[in-house]
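tool_call: predict_structure(chain=1)
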Amino acid sequence: MKNILVTGGTSYIGKHVIAQLIEKEYSVRTTIRNKEKTDEIKSDIQKHLGKDVSLDVHVADLLKDNGWDEAIKGCDAIIHVAGPFPVGYDGGEKELTGPHEDGAMRVFKLAKEHGIKRIILTSSVASIWMDSTIEDTVRYIDESNWTNLNDDNIDAYTKGKALKEKAAWDFVDKNESIKLTTILPSVVMGPGIGKPVRRGSMELFMMLTNKEMPVAPPLKMGVVDVRDVAKMHIAALENDESIGKRVILAEDTYWMKDFCKMLNDLGHNAPTFSPPVFLVKFMANFDKTIKPVKPLLGVDIRFNTEIAKTVLKYDPIPIKKTLQDTSDFVKSYK
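tool_result:
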């Protein structure tokens, strides 16, 4: 298995997956939505690795058929990373669930047509931890959990992630020739490859360190290093024991105020005051940056990462190193 397609090549996770595959001497191709990014992605990977690299780049959009057949043809396996994450998104639900679910099915159907038997899918803990109907203040989350898609308090991004993963498992249940592993990272931090982009968890980091968030919401979140996320995608690809498994990734879980204190130990001025849960839940009705996590406010989340540790030998990078490296990365581009 030497020819690997990585979708979403310009993404935070995608670039790290590509770089690590190249380091392991895989033949790598990737998809990007914008042709103008072709030179940029190659340059970023080469600068990161400190050497010339061979990377086959295809232009393909999750919502269109164009380009996908050519990108997939001849591959031995697919690592499907591509998917949107617009912070504060306030448009229609279908605009988000469509790229996730429909785009994934476009890739899976073509994979079947071309006889590809192995897919690693980037999902998210968004697929497993959202359910406002549960009133427990302590919640233990493992691979058996699913986000409640019938919950009207769940935002479109979260539904999109869960729908994509559910659709993937439904597809392989009906098409047993394809072997699937899904990777479910928590909040992804760590140094990027190329310039920092204010999107996803990097947006959160910049909001906290640029004094754009006045308080630390009473929210507990898992954190995982982007380098570990990429490493676990490849570990799953190389380990048949991971077939049929959902792999949760989190170094640990942290209340936002404690996360901010660690940032401040690095010289930042992040907020450490955490207002009462009832007040933030009220604010979430008006603040689009808080609203997506309203069901989790005040909930002591605890992730079970046993599959990652036992099957894929997940030995997480400590959060203090992750935050230090993230901070250095962002500062290096200021």
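agent: The first helix runs from residue 12 to 23. Proceeding to next step.
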